[in-house]
Design a protein that fits this description.
This is Enoyl-CoA hydratase. Pfam families: ECH_1 (PF00378). GO terms for molecular function: delta(3)-delta(2)-enoyl-CoA isomerase activity. The protein is an alpha/beta fold. Helix content is 46%, strand content 15%. The protein has a domain of 178 residues: 2-enoyl-CoA Hydratase, Chain A, domain 1. Helix 2 crosses helix 11, helix 3 runs antiparallel to helix 10 and helix 5 packs across helix 6. It is globular, with a radius of gyration of 18 Å. The protein starts with a strand and ends in an 11-residue tail after the last helix.
């Protein structure tokens, strides 16, 4: 499954491409592992001055592979540990992180953007965090970062109702730096990454460390992770994933 993450390092820019377009770039345990390995290794690679994250096809990512969630909810799997490594690697990353986002960015597809330093959205981008709709809770320290970024009211609505935020609204709320036409997305993100790569790396690293405390974010992730793991094994979660598989609306009113 690691072929579903494509890695390129050119001109100081380490590009991570989610390359599973036939499955809407849904992230599997193996993909999380490859992403985590690469981001962790970049900390010790002077040739990786900037990290650029993008998705292949018409969607950035549909988020975590729902099949893996469903297996945990049904008691058939212990679940992924690599997702924890991935989100913690984002929190601790000292390299500038740039994201290029087209189409839908669901769940972790949106929360990972809170760890990126520059976010470029295509004009068709839609950001959503439907954790509660799946009987889960936010992750990736988004329960801390999202309210701080856009305010409690907007953050709560994104989490509790799970409705998608279109690109222009995301820009106005402060979730992105740019919105560009879809056919300009990769060029704009690459241009920004190249500009960062020409900046003094030490000054960029020091600036990022002053702006973000990675260990505080990791502590929040651990608290979220405990709740997430508990919620994933509830009757509500089983109903959510059964309904998803059966392509019907879940009925949480009948769940004790």
């Amino acid at each position: 499954m690691t072929e579903h993450v494509r890695i390129e390092n050119n001109g100081g820019i380490l590009t991570l491409t989610l390359a599973r377009p036939d499955k809407k770039n849904a992230l599997t345990d193996a993909m999380y592992g490859k992403l985590a390995d690469t981001i962790e290794s970049a900390e010790f690679d002077p040739s990786a001055r900037v990290i650029l994250i993008r998705g292949e096809g018409d969607m950035f990512t549909a988020g975590n592979d729902v099949g893996e969630f469903a297996a945990v909810a049904a008691g058939k799997s212990e679940g992924s540990r690599n997702v924890i490594r991935f989100i913690q690697s984002l929190a601790r990353c000292t390299r500038p992180l740039v994201a290029a986002v087209q189409g839908r960015a669901v769940g972790v597809g949106t929360t990972m953007l809170l760890h990126c330093d520059l976010v470029v959205l295509a004009d068709n981008a839609q950001l959503s965090t439907p954790f509660v709709s799946l009987a889960l809770v936010p992750e990736a320290a988004s329960s801390l970062l999202m309210p701080a970024r856009i305010g409690h009211a907007r953050a709560y609505e994104m989490f509790a109702l799970g409705e998608a935020v279109p690109a222009q609204a995301a820009l106005q709320w402060g979730l992105a730096n740019r919105v560009v036409p879809l056919d300009k997305l990769d060029a704009e993100a690459l241009a920004l990454a190249q500009r960062l790569a020409r900046q003094p790396a030490g000054a960029l690293t020091a600036t990022k460390r002053l702006m973000r405390n990675g260990e505080v974010l990791v502590a929040q992730m651990q608290a979220e992770g405990e709740q997430f793991a508990q919620r994933l094994r509830t009757a509500e979660a089983r109903e959510a994933f059964t309904a998803f598989a059966e392509r019907r609306a879940p009925d949480f009113t009948k769940v004790a």
